[in-house]
Design a protein that fits this description.
This protein is mainly alpha-helical. Helices cover 78% and strands 1% of the residues. The chain is built from 25 helices and two strands. The chain has a two-stranded parallel ribbon.
Length: 494
Amino acid sequence: MPTKSPVAPGPRPPIGSRAGAESPGQRQDRHAAPPQSSPEVTVVDPTMVKRAVSAAALGNAMEWFDFGVYSYIAVTLGHVFFPSGNPTAQLLSTFGAFAAAFLVRPIGGMVFGPLGDRIGRQKVLAITMIMMAVGTFAIGLIPSYATIGVGAPILLLVARLVQGFSTGGEYGGASTFIAEYAPDKKRGFLGSWLEFGTLAGYVGGAGLVTLMTALLSTEDLNSWGWRIPFLIAGPMGIIGLYLRMRLEETPAFAQLEKEARTKEKERREAEKRIGIREMVFGQWRSMLLCVGLVLVFNVTDYMLLSYMPSYLTSELKYDETHGLLVVLAVMVLMMVVQPFAGRLSDRFGRRPVIAAGCAGFLLLSVPALLLIRQGSLVAIALGMAALGLLLVTFTSTMPAALPALFPTKVRYGSLSIGFNISVSLFGGTTPLVVTALIGATGNKMMPAYYMMAAAVIGGIAVWRMSESARRPLPGSPPAVETAAEAQEAVRAAR
């Protein structure tokens, strides 16, 4: 465990000296006031902030490393675990096991989210990291269908359910962790590294499978080569767990615990009994905004990164390898732009950046898809790049915008529940729904229309949300980087 506090110890005594002379009753009254009026200011430790961002981003990278590996090696997994003799049935069975993880994500959010609000963010994120690593590593150890028969696909399904359950507590916890550590003026920039980890994990997983496919024969890939990407999750999980165990609890949660100890027993017990009902219905407006924002974020995300390679191959008859390489190149471009877009959200606000993305998808989805449908490599690359840059407006801002919707005492739980419900209902189903719409209507422009519909819903959510850039999180005091900024915040509060 770390010996260094997540809050820099030096400047706290003079800033909190006024609070230190107050009685518990006075501190309770002061806590009831808006954070801007509080004389307490959190001065963050830059070293701990960097550790928090690294540990949170690595967990997201690990989740999407598995996502990239599973998506790109699906055909091989179909041969290994579902040898029906029908390639289509094999692929459907493989993706059925993949989709099963989405069904349990909301359940994981309902378990890990409230637990993170009760026992702390750091502990729960360590648990989810262990479960993700174990689930992914276990896939690499499962015997083939030829060895143990029907037990092989059953074990694959169990491993996927473990992954999905743990993932339900990962994004909400990771974004909460970074948001509560970050100084108010840099929350967008630091939060953007969470999705940088997402892109890095996906590129790493998909790139590794592409390399293995090029280097190994089909026989070697089917017999033992497919296990390598999954077994890599073991060392990655150990590294991620080490990083997370070195962290202190977030300043916001530590402050909540400190204040709880000064309150009467009844109030403390009431806070411990915060349940699903309060996290959902007690935050119903913020929950609806969360679902709407996550909807536009994930529909466009899964459309571009998951569905478009299949769309290029199945609908446009484009070469599969070239289509995958284009998607990988777009993700690398997004990684480069990601931190800069995060800084823009700190300077101009979350709402303008997200609104620009919604407007962009509403206006440019059809032109971009028409460009892609021309079929040339240059046209496809330009169309995909345009959609990827629009997607960055969401990936760079959501890790900072979503935690700011909820107060500290229910932030992890409410965000995890809202996020995973929206992902399971709308994000993860995007490829299936769009494929069905194209089949029913024969209209190959359906991906553009679907993204436009999501942009309208996202635009409504942005219109109704409050700006959170450069402001304290609800229920938390201002967070700054230096003692001088702290003194300035105290003067502004007074």
